[in-house]
Structure to design on (470 residues):
DNA sequence: CGCAAAGTTGATCATAGTCAAGTTCTGTGG
DNA sequence: CCACAGAACTTGACTATGATCAACTTTGCG
C-alpha cells in the first residue's frame, strides 16, 4: 500500500503480457500483484534450456510467462521420465520456499520467458502476502493430484489408454482450435515419452486411429478430429 | 505461553506414548506441542477402518500415533492402488488446510490411535505456530517426493526390482530386528499390491529369493536375511 | 539435390499377467 | 484330539501386451 505510487508499477506492466493470468495471483489485488512482479526479475528462456536440475539446492522460484517447459525426473537407468507440461501461468521451483533441493528437472521445450524470484525475495513475499502463500501451496496440491493421476494411469491403464489420455491432455493444454478439430505440435517421439510407451507403439496406435478417422498426422503435428472418441477410450 | 500452567498439559501427557516423535512437531517447544495436542482429539482406530475417503470434503487433519495405515487411490477399473504406508508420527489429511477434497483414501491396516483436528482448529493452529505450518508443508513435499519415486519405480523398474524395493522399504518401516535378519508381517497378497505385481509373480520371486537364502518365508511373515543383496538388486 | 530428422511397418521376443489345480497352514468347534 | 474350513501360498502352463530391432519411406530444409 505504501508503494502504491512507485514507478515499479510501470515495470510490472511491461513484464506481463496483456491478459496474462496465473493461479499464483488468484485473490491478490492489482497493487499486490504489481509488488510481487516488481520484486522478481524477468528472464528469457530458450529451447532445451535447463531451468532447474533435480538435486540442486533450490535457489529460485519461477513463474512461466510465455513459452513452454516440462518437468522431468531422471531414472536410475539413465532415461529421463516426462512428468508434466508447464504452461504459461504455472509456477515451479516451489522447493525454494523450503530448505530442500529441487525434486525435478525443468527444461524449456520452446523459447519464452519466466519471472524469477530468489530465495530471500520469495520467502519475504509469502510472508507479506498470506494469500500468495496459499496459492503456492495450492499449486503444490495440484502437482500432487497430477502425480497421483499419472501413477494411476501408468499402473492401471494400457499403452493405448495412456496415449489417448495424453492426446486429450495435449489438446486441452497446448492445442489450437481449428474448424475441423484441435491441432497441436507434437512429435511421435515426445508423445511416446509423455505416455511412456515406445516410439513404435505410439506410431502404431496413431496409424490405427488415423485410419479410423479419429485424427490426422503430419510431421510434428497432430490434428485431433474427434477427441470424444478418445475420451471414451480411456474411460 | 499464557496457557503454560493449564491442566491441558496433563491431558497431552496421556495422549502421546513416551518417546513419541513426529516431524510435525519438529522445532516446536514442549509448550507449543502440548498446546497443539490439546487442541485436537484422540481417537482409536480399528483394522480396515477407512479414515478418509478420496473425493470427500477434507474436514480433519490426522496424526497417526500408534498402529498402521496406508494411502490408497481407487483406479477407474475398480481396483485400489496402494500408494504408501502411514506409520506412527506421519501426518495425513493435509487437504484440510486448503479448500479441496481429500486426494486419497486412508485405511487403517491394524488397530491403533490417531490425533484429530477439525478444520477450524487446524487452520487456527498453523496460523498461531508458523513452524507448524512449515512442518505440514514439509510433509507435503515428502509425499510429493515419494510419489515421484513411486512413479519412477513403476515406470522404469521390473517387477523383480519393485518387489526388492518394497521388501527393503518394509524392512525399514515396519521391520523388527532379529539376530538373523529383519522380520516383518506381510502377506504375499499385500506385498504384491504394494509392488503392483500379480500375486503369482510375487510368490514366484519370493520362492527364488528363498532358495538363494536371501530370505525366509512363513505364513504372513517374511524374514529378510540379507537386505544388501536386494538393495544391489534394485540399484 | 542431398541430407537428416521424422515416421512406418512387420517380425520377433521378453516380461509378467492369468488361470487351474494343487498343497500347506492355522484356528475353531465337535 | 481330530476334522475341517478357509485362508495363504505354490507351481507350472499358457498368453497377451508392448518393447526391440531392422529396414524402409517420407518430409522439409539449406
Amino acid at each position: 500500500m505504501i508503494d502504491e505510487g512507485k514507478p515499479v508499477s510501470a515495470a510490472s506492466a511491461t513484464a506481463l503480457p496483456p491478459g496474462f493470468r496465473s493461479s499464483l495471483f488468484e485473490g491478490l489485488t492489482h497493487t499486490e500483484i504489481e509488488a510481487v512482479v516488481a520484486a522478481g526479475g524477468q528472464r528469457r528462456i530458450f529451447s532445451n534450456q535447463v531451468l532447474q536440475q533435480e538435486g540442486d539446492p533450490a535457489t529460485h522460484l519461477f513463474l512461466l510467462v510465455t513459452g513452454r517447459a516440462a518437468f522431468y525426473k531422471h531414472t536410475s537407468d539413465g532415461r529421463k521420465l516426462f512428468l508434466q507440461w508447464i504452461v504459461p501461468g504455472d509456477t515451479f521451483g516451489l522447493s525454494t520456499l523450503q530448505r530442500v533441493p529441487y525434486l525435478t528437472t525443468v527444461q524449456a521445450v520452446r523459447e519464452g520467458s519466466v519471472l524469477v524470484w530468489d530465495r530471500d525475495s520469495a520467502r519475504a513475499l509469502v510472508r507479506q502476502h498470506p494469500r500468495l502463500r496459499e496459492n503456492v501451496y495450492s499449486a503444490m496440491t495440484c502437482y500432487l493430484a497430477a502425480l497421483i493421476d499419472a501413477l494411476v494411469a501408468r499402473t492401471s491403464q494400457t499403452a493405448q489408454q495412456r496415449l489417448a489420455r495424453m492426446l486429450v491432455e495435449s489438446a486441452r493444454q497446448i492445442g489450437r482450435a481449428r474448424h475441423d478439430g484441435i491441432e497441436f505440435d507434437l512429435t511421435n517421439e515426445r508423445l511416446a515419452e509423455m505416455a511412456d510407451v515406445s516410439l513404435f507403439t505410439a506410431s502404431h496406435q496413431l496409424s490405427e486411429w488415423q485410419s479410423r478417422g479419429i485424427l490426422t498426422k503430419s510431421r510434428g503435428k497432430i490434428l485431433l478430429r474427434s477427441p470424444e472418441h478418445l475420451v471414451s477410450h480411456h474411460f
User: Anything to note?
Assistant: The interface with chain A takes residues 73, 75-77, 79, 81, 83, 95, 97-98, 100, 103-104, 134, 137-138, 140-141, 143-145, 147-148, 150-152, 154-157, 196, 235 of chain B (CB under 8 Å). The longest helix of chain B spans residues 130-156. Residues 158-159, 197-198, 200-201, 204, 218-219 of chain B lie near DNA strand C (CB under 10 Å from a C1').
